[in-house]
Amino acid sequence: MEIQSEISMDLNQEYVGQTLDVLVEGISEETELLLEGRTPFQAPEIDGCVYIADGECEQGDMVQVEITEAHPMIWWAILSQVHRTSYLLLLI
């Protein structure tokens, strides 16, 4: 597992500074001070998530974030742009 963690860390570091689309899932389970979301290529309960540490948006919003920090299973990000269309309704 240690080798996989190193590989994930190396791959995730390549995204630092990039802007990615994220579906906001809501307030993080870790703390109510963070929002949590996923990119189109992060599967729930399998892959990591994106913690949004700065900016305002709502659950179901599709947003663009700038990745500021990477870890093996998590990205930290700040909000770049909000698309107020609620994509959560389209997934149901």
Major pleated sheet: 5 strands, mixed, barrel
Helix amount, in percent? 10-25%
Strand percentage lies at over 45%
Gap between N and C termini = 35 Å
Per DSSP, the total helix count is: 2
Which class of secondary structure composition applies to the elements? Answer: alpha+beta
Average pLDDT: 87
Radius of gyration: 13 Å
Question: How many E-type strands?
Answer: 5
Overall body shape: globular
- Spans of at least 5 consecutive residues whose pLDDT stays below 50 are none
Could you give the order of the helices and strands? HEEEEEH
Strand order of the largest sheet: 1-2-3-5-4
Walk me through what this model shows.
This protein has 92 residues and is α+β, with helices and mostly antiparallel strands. It is 17% helix and 46% strand. The protein has 2 helices and 5 strands. The chain has helices spanning 2-13, 88-91; strands at residues 19-27, 35-38, 49-54, 61-70, 74-86. A 5-stranded mixed β-barrel has the order 1-2-3-5-4. β1 (19-27) and β2 (35-38) form a beta hairpin. The longest helix has 12 residues, at 2-13. It is globular and about 40 Å long. The N and C termini lie far apart (35 Å).
